[in-house]
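We modelled the chain as a single entity of 215 amino acids. Its sequence is:
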Amino acid sequence: MISASNSWTICVSSDVELNFLVYVARAYSICDEYFDKHGAWPNRQVSLSDQLHQELETQWHDFWSQSLQQKAEANIQQRAASKSRSMDQVEVAQLNHNHVSPFVLDQPYFEAIQHRGLREALAAQWPSFIQWWNMPAGGQAAMHYWEHITDLIRYVREFEIEAGRPIQSFHLDVELIYNGPCKPIEVTDEYVIMPIRTDYLMKPDWWNERFKERY
């Protein structure tokens, strides 16, 4: 969590579930319009018949959209609850980057997923995903690196200098995704899904434009 003068906070983190959902989508080449086309991730991809491919794409897209909305609502509830906690408790809660969220239930078999095709796809890809995620140079390590590399305090200060005023108070949750989506997904004004790409995370112009539009 990055903050200054108690007027603004930006929490940059990564969620196992969202990265897993993208991993599954890439493994089955579904919803390709969401993702960067350079490189294949994961390395081994699964071929499906046209009918099964379309069914899985629809199921995945619906579940992805529902997960983002539920997570946005959960973030709002967490911030409301944190107002009654001590600062130490809030910091511990917001630094829990290894959490598997409740929106994908009962891994590794995912019995709670309604659609059979999606449930089977999740179960099939979970072992390879979690192995990659926990490798010394795997997904979790990459997420931790990118969580700390962006100089957001400098970007805010540069905006304030250019605007000639302090930035308005705000809170922003940024969740990072490995190798996708193509560009940030602004679920709400306070919740953004962002690929680990320098042209967003490390470009002052992108942040400055967002600050100018909203704060």
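As a brief sanity check on the tokenised model: The helical segments are 16-27, 50-82, 87-94, 116-134, 139-149, 152-163, 198-201, 204-214. The CA atoms of residues 12 and 147 lie 6 Å apart.
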